[in-house]
Specification:
By secondary structure, the protein is an alpha/beta fold. It is built from 17 helices and 14 strands. The protein folds into 3 domains: 10-281, Aldolase class I (TIM Barrel); 326-386; 396-522, Double Stranded RNA Binding Domain (2-Layer Sandwich). It has helices at 29-42, 56-68, 82-91, 108-114, 119-133, 152-165, 181-194, 214-223, 245-254, 256-259, 270-281, 302-310, 337-347, 354-371, 376-386, 433-445, 498-522, and strands at 10-13, 46-50, 73-77, 98-105, 140-145, 169-174, 202-207, 228-231, 396-403, 411-417, 423-429, 449-458, 467-481, 484-495.
């Protein structure tokens, strides 16, 4: 928990709320809790855990996070009405440091067309919402939606009124990613200079990336007095995404000479948390993504390589170890044994129980037999594939066999263990080996769906690299998961055999769909 100070920026993470609004990124309750614990360890000050009234699943997620997270503020989003605020207050009951985040639009576009009201009526509704929320919690944040396109004079009036009503934080969003850094910085400067009671509240900013300016706008606001930044891990979010946590944090750290500000983030946890969020949401990190992309610290130019070898700072302004990028030079082999593997996993931040470790060890031996040496990125892929599944697996893939070629019909045979322990074998052909495998799996499981997204990446260099596959499938009929109608489910798989990785990813997505359907029936 942090109070606003002149030399510290509060990190408000909305990965679990705004970030989850990325298409196809829906997380179940257990996955949200896992990410919340990782964010707490990362050192964020505030976790926006969800929008409690939006669905029973979101309510349960906020409730569990509020109960389990003790080291930072847990926040629930609401609209400016009593029903929403009641739901958030109930979900946050028992939180060590609860916050209710409520608000309304302030641009004439939002007031006229979305709220269908007047400026004065919207202002009064906002004041009443803050007063009502203060009956439940002492920490109330008020958002002024679409502030980037609002009349500044009206915005000043709204801020002064909600602060007088008890708002402790005022959120200035660039909801559509419309403003430029000069404009957004000037907006914050205007607030500081024209809102008489602004000293009683923390100025927060929430920038979207529609024009690729979210980080620049956020930093411009910080320079003008904003002391809370609203961000997501990997910059995920609806449309073009949100301001990226890792970019803002590392900009403040790397250019301390320019900003003179600190955060409470343990930067060595940035890379592991980035990988966790990417894995659980099924949204890959683009290779050239700043700070956490695979190419962020890669140098292909001979001139650059020569410079870095002589002196790292010639072309690197950030030490990869400072953001937790693991040392890939440490490699293991089948002879490393259990102790060597457990020690390396601990160094990478993986604390596994005996059952989890045994699964990872067996997969490690399989990969080591095929690759001879296993580096850090291989280990990460193995752990992701074997350990982090937050739902019950109904069908387990035991074997895949494929025949294909430019003069043959691609044919696949699969062996799958079902929920009753019985083993099913079937085969089919397709337009290619992956299509044949998926058709064969469908013959066994019989869950109608459409493959809508397919991505494959090599985890490491070389012909023997582990392949990581991420897919999305769309169910024929929507499934009510945690109170939300959902049709798209993601899956992932990793293996040195690309076709096997594809099969694992498909099985993961199907099992996720089946688990959601089973929970819907129970509910």
């Amino acid at each position: 928990m942090s109070s606003s100070t002149a030399d510290r920026v509060i990190i408000f993470d909305t990965t679990l709320r705004d970030g989850e609004q990325s298409p196809g990124a829906a997380l179940n309750v257990n996955e949200k809790v896992e990410i919340a614990h990782a964010l707490e360890e990362l050192g964020v000050d505030v976790i926006e855990a969800g929008f409690p009234i939006s669905s029973p699943g979101d309510f349960r997620a906020v409730q569990r996070i509020a109960q389990e997270i003790r080291g930072c503020v847990v926040c629930g989003l609401t609209r400016a009405n009593r029903q929403d605020i009641d739901a958030a207050a109930e979900a946050l009951r028992g939180a060590a440091h609860p916050r209710i985040h409520t608000g309304l639009g302030v641009s004439d576009i939002h007031i006229r067309y979305k709220l269908r009201t007047t400026r004065e009526e919207a202002l009064q509704r906002g004041v009443e919402a803050v007063r009502y929320a203060r009956q439940f919690v002492e920490d109330v944040q008020y958002y002024t939606e679409d502030a980037g396109r609002a009349d500044p004079e009206y915005l000043y009036r709204v801020l002064e009124a909600v602060i007088a009503a008890g708002a402790t934080v005022v959120n200035i969003p660039d909801t559509t990613g419309y403003t430029t850094p000069d404009e957004f910085g000037a907006l914050i400067q205007g607030i500081v200079e024209n809102v008489d009671n602004i000293y009683r509240a923390t100025i927060s900013v929430h920038c979207h990336n529609d024009l690729g300016l979210a980080t620049a706008n956020t930093l411009a606001a910080v320079r003008q007095g904003a002391r809370q930044v609203e961000v997501t891990v990997n910059g995920i979010g609806e449309r073009a995404g949100n301001c990226s946590l890792e970019e803002v944090v590392m900009a403040l750290r790397t250019r301390h000479d320019c900003f003179g500000l600190e955060t409470g983030i343990n930067t060595r946890r940035i890379y592991p948390v980035s990988r966790l969020v990417s894995q659980l949401t099924g949204i890959p990190v683009q290779p050239n993504k700043a700070i956490v992309g695979a190419n962020a610290f890669a140098h292909s130019s001979g001139i650059h390589q020569d410079g870095v070898l002589k002196e790292r700072t010639t072309y690197e302004i950030i030490n990869p170890r400072d953001v937790g990028v693991p040392d890939s030079e440490i490699i293991l082999s089948a002879r490393s044994g259990r102790h060597g593997l457990r020690h390396r996993l601990a160094e990478l931040g993986y604390l596994l129980d005996e059952e989890q470790f045994e699964k990872v060890y067996q997969r490690f031996l399989e990969v080591a037999d095929r690759k001879k040496t296993v580096d850090t990125r291989d280990l990460e892929a193995i752990v992701e594939d074997e350990v982090r599944m937050f739902f019950e697996e109904t069908y387990h893939l035991e074997q895949v066999q494929v025949t294909c070629g430019d003069h043959s019909i691609p044919t696949a045979t699969v062996r799958i263990r079902g929920p009753d322990g019985q083993v099913y074998c079937d085969a089919d052909h397709g337009t290619g080996p992956v299509d044949a495998v998926y058709r064969a799996i469908n013959r066994v499981i019989g869950e109608p769906n459409e493959l809508i997204e397919f991505s494959i990446q090599a985890v490491t260099e070389g012909i023997d690299a582990v392949a990581r596959v991420t897919i999305r499938i769309q169910a024929e009929e929507p499934v009510s998961e945690n109170g939300v109608e959902r049709r798209v489910f993601s899956g992932r798989g990793a293996d040195t055999d690309t076709i096997v990785a594809c099969a694992k990813a498909y099985m993961f997505a199907l099992n996720r769909l089946i688990a959601a359907r089973r929970e819907a029936v129970k509910g």
